[in-house]
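Why show two proteins at once? Because comparison is the fastest way to build intuition. When a single record is shown, students tend to memorize it. When two are placed side by side, the eye starts asking what differs. So, the first record is below.
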Amino acid sequence: MTRVKAKKYLGQHFLKDLEVARRIADSLELTAPSNVLEIGPGMGVLTRFLLDRTDARLTVVEIDSESVAYLHEHFKGLHILEADFLKMKLSDYFDGPVHLIGNLPYNISSQIFFKMLDNREQVPQLVCMIQKEVAERMAARHGNKTYGILSVLMQAFYSIDYLFTVHEHVFDPPPKVKSAVIRLVRNDVQSLGCDEQLFKTVVKTAFNQRRKTMRNSLKPLVAKEHPMFLDDLFNLRPEQLDVAAFVDLTNRVSAAMKE
């Protein structure tokens, strides 16, 4: 196993196994030369393999000044943005689509996913390594006990594949949990056909009381006496509903709130 020096920053455990890094870089599916943005490259373990890809026009974004200095020294000519990805406006840097990739810091991975959702028309794909538990939750289908808020909100606009598990010993420092690599690819959905802000509210409200039936979990939004609750749909628990069912539910809640 080939290893390189790495360090921890902002809760990030840096990958030190080059074979795993190569496998992650190869998981990015590009059909033509495309803009690629690596989030948090650190010491460039993944970067070197992305630079080998002739179909990737690579830019990296890194918030840590020491890592930026290291990258400038070891990757001459690499396009480096010293910035916070969460505060970036992607359209300021890229005219068209940009594919994302990275070993995401555990402590901000959910924020990165939500930013991706907000920019979904510009982000056709994300390949990332995250905590295994979060990866399983993201890729879970309805009916699975790990299916939750992130599952529904991300699957509404992206197809998600759990690619492979990554063990603790390939990181420096080793995390206390396993990691996994997933790939998210934009689906064909342009509009959910419902109020998307209310959709988010319905999903979050339902899963905040996931052991309850939909009839009980949605009481904060609609009075329990409302006739819509007579439908058998409301006998189900949130993990039993797919994205389409949540869209239908959102439209019902919307209609009830306007009465």
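Second record. Ask yourself what differs from the first in the token line.
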Amino acid sequence: MRYISTRGQAPARQFCDILLGGLAPDGGLYLPESYPAVSAADLAAWRALSYADLAFEILSRFIDDIPADDLRALCRKTYTASVYGNTRSGSDAAAITPVTWLEPGRGAGHEGGLGLLELSNGPTLAFKDMAMQLLGNLFEYVLDARGEQLNILGATSGDTGSAAEYAMRGKHGVRVFMLSPHGRMSAFQRAQMYSLQDENIHNIAVKGMFDDAQDIVKAVSNDHAFKAQYKIGAVNSINWGRVAAQIVYYFAGYFAATDSNDQCVDMAVPSGNFGNICAGHIARMMGLPIGRLICATNENDVLDEFFRTGVYRPRSSAETHVTSSPSMDISKASNFERFVFDLVGRDAAVVRALWAQVDAGGSFDLNATPYRARMGEFGFASGSSSHADRLATIRAIRDRYGVVVDTHTADGLKVAAQHRGVAPLLVLETAQAVKFEETLREALGEAPPRPAGFDHLEALPQRCEVMAADLAAVKDFIRQHARD
């Protein structure tokens, strides 16, 4: 399996080579040369597998430069009940990603049912753990095999940072430099990241929005000399390894929601950077019977606008709203380029032309192109949610079903309700509610439940560097602290 750039001007490479990098040298994102097809026989054989063994079966279709026994061992090391044990009452830790049925629907196949696919039972209580824990083990394995070291540079709007740091803390050969928007995350999210005292973890709070931090990460990745000298790697969802690992739980959710492989399932996904739902798109392209992928945004509705109108119009930082679902306060969806590459028939020249407009601060409009008509083939629907919607949904879900959801999952539930059909509908949970206690108190008048071990998190000592959203300053900090 070789990987190519969405912009078509970088050499094809194998998985382990792109795992340790970020953007392709031409500024594009890596994707497989073709998606492996999944047959009905595959689905039948995989239905009864454990999550770890399902992960191996799927990832082995994308990874052929790690011996099969080693890859299987890495999956089994990662996906254990002890790692993903922060389950809610009644959940099955052994399932890794259990489904909570709000409305079971009719029959074993859950037709018409509404469920939450629990993805936040990992160590940082967010769906990012599902891929990041595997990425940490893959990094360590590849670096040890090559005798190399890596300085990871990432940007977070809230959950990626803590998931990456918990996955990489103590890993030999790895340092983490994580940028976050100063004062824009919840108190719980800040405490999860900034309270870590590990020598290989460095937090940088950037005065700006997430997009400013993400722009710095991309600029460093595009400085090929600096990237090579300081051995810069990536853990944001621009890293293909993240997306590949996320494909697995779409299959797991499908199996939990159906009792045969001739059924379709709709899936609603809260989305900011388009990484999570991009994995769903790829699962669907592989042959998983997903009917509709419902893209749910908050007030930063760039993606919803595209799917409704055919116009992709990123916003500036000044135009980006600060909301109560802060991990989706993103107006430049990095992974969206991967979907557009497929939408335009994998024509890299078209992608380069479109992103030349985006990178120049503009937008693009597909309405006068043949690609607008093709959008329907990919099964996307969309919608947006507001702060008032969020509060109302949190209250309604608690009152009706006795389940407390976080603000981002509430966005997913609100938009999912607009597109509910006869197929089972799974809403992909983003995080546990405790990570957004301030808004949950506003919605419910009380604090959400806390899993054991998180009682005094915000009171722990914190350390981070606060600096301007300045590329040169971030590079200087890396120079001072990186292993070169």
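One difference worth noting in the second protein: The mean pLDDT is 94.
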